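In this supplementary section we document a worked example of the pipeline. Step one takes a protein sequence of length 686 as its only input; no multiple sequence alignment statistics are reported here. Step two produces a three-dimensional model, which step three serialises into structure tokens for compact storage. The input and output of this example are shown verbatim.
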Amino acid sequence: MRVTFGVLGPVAAWDETGAPLALRGPRHRAVLARLIAANGRVVPLGDLVADLWVVPPPGSIAAVRTFIAALRKAIEPDRPRRAPAATLTTEGAGYALRTAPDNVDAWRFEAAVRTARAAVGHPPSAAGTTSTASAASTASAAFTAGATSAASATSAASALTEALSWWRGPAYAELAGEPWTAGERSRLAELRLQAAELLAEARIAAGRPAEAIPDLDAHVADHPWREPAWRLLALALHRAGRRPDALAVLRRARARLAGELGLDPGAELARLEAAVLRDDPAPDPVARVWAEAGADLERITVARTRLDSTVHLMRELAVTGGSGLVAARRHRAAAVAAAEELGDPGLVARVAGAYDVPAVWTRSDDPAQAAAIVAAAGRALPATRGEARARLLATIAIESRGADGGPHALGCAREAVGIARERGEPGLLAFALNGLFMQTVHRTGLAPERDRIGAELVALAGRHGLVTYEVLGHLIRMQALSGLGDMGEAERHADAADELAAAHELPLVAVFTGWHRALRASLADPEAGERAYRTVPLEGAGMPGLESGLRDLALLTHRLRWELPTGAEDGGDFGPYEPWARPVMLLGAGRDEEARRALREAPEPPHDLLSEAMWALVAHAARALGESGDDVPTKSSAMAPGDDGGVAPGMIVERAREALRPAAGEWAGAGSGLVTLGPVAGYLQP
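The serialised model returned by step three reads:
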């Protein structure tokens, strides 16, 4: 039986009739997707375990083998018992997916784009960009062979239309949060954009420019940094006899490119504009290709210089306040994408790694944008050494925050620190230490380690005049010391951060120190704490990863600690904290059975500065509902993974205690410097 596999959308498999195969639970699909992403290579069993769980539970190896056995049964239902698998094979200490390239939609799509690229006269290119050398090659080929034939272009357009129809959604759709999918998702998304542009080019070359216009119009609206798309849209309009519209598009392209990237349009767009003004619909093919090769050289040289300069402006923009931070993030993502389009790993390393803006909050403001930057950095990493490599590693560690980057992100952070110490460069070491700080939330109880990082940053930055990192060090110590219950010393570091911020115009610092003082007020008096949490500034800071749900979470933790009514079960916006706050709110409304169901459906909290607070909410709700954990037969069975990722009845308290035990000497949530549910030790008692 022929089985086909799909990752251009949700992970799926179909039999030879097109009927979907039952792949059972999400972890079964994750294993299959991981093997597809390996592109035929063997994936060691240990790597599969590490990719499925940030902290592999007991029994995880056996669980993966169970998933493999179930997948084999679905994929090869007629395989005789004990006969070796032909598709999902065991090889050495790992597994591989052995199937024809045509049987995986992503592999088939890549081959279709490669064929279409050749049909319209482009040289092969894994990245889909034309370097200076390949542009010259294209010019030479066109000079000897002439322009792309209409028949060849028509065939390419038909093939690309079919290939684009294979997409059912974003690649690896339900696995977007998994770090191991980031590179493949980004690569396939880029290939999809290239295919859309190749389709437009083929339609124009086939003499059907009007067909290309609607899709190109939507394409440039969604991806305004892609200069080739603007050129194709203007060319299609001009060839379709819409000269004024073509000129309007070229003006719009100039405005968007300057606004998004700080770049002037390349010479290629300028030449096209001149041709449109001359009303020259089809310049000589040889002259056109030769001119485009020269334009590529000029565009690439100028763009490299400007991108190198632009990233330094973005660092300054990021520390000016809320709107500046949002704009800096947007420009940075566009700059990294533009650097990748030029096909220069060194430029990607410089653009991505030069944005060493200190980061103090462990939840990402824009996870999709961060994942794209991590993927670009990962692709550039093999071509870098020394400082460039350390900067990319630190970038991966920082941008992986809140995404459960697991051992890979932590390993990147540690390697970056090691390189920076060897090189003895203070700014590089400060950047790398920031990455290490972001990855010291992989379990609870790490406030002492974060405090040591903060202390090193304060000393290092103070010696070398790195003001923003000195502020970061003080904020990290403010958080860590709060988590350790030393509020007086934490306040001293908050004051030091405020003094530096006032002297150097760093307005975002006041968001964190203001919230820390609200925490102090909450500890001292119930009414003062309630008032402080309601009025302390937060909105408009440009940090949605911090802002979302925080105010209502702070009020809930404050009321629980003072044993005050928590409010109605739907009274508040808890943002990402809703799964752990909801059971408590339902309890406060007297809806115990709904609270019990909500508690058991709550996932494991993410690894960040508030994970202790989320586990404490779990423990509080479980205790109030009489979930003692005493009916759990063994620790291993209590921690065994469920296929749907949920928590079985009777395991809830034991899960919370196990997670909180390393933080027994800390205050739950106070490591954020913003909120607390009191001493963790109180949640470890029966």
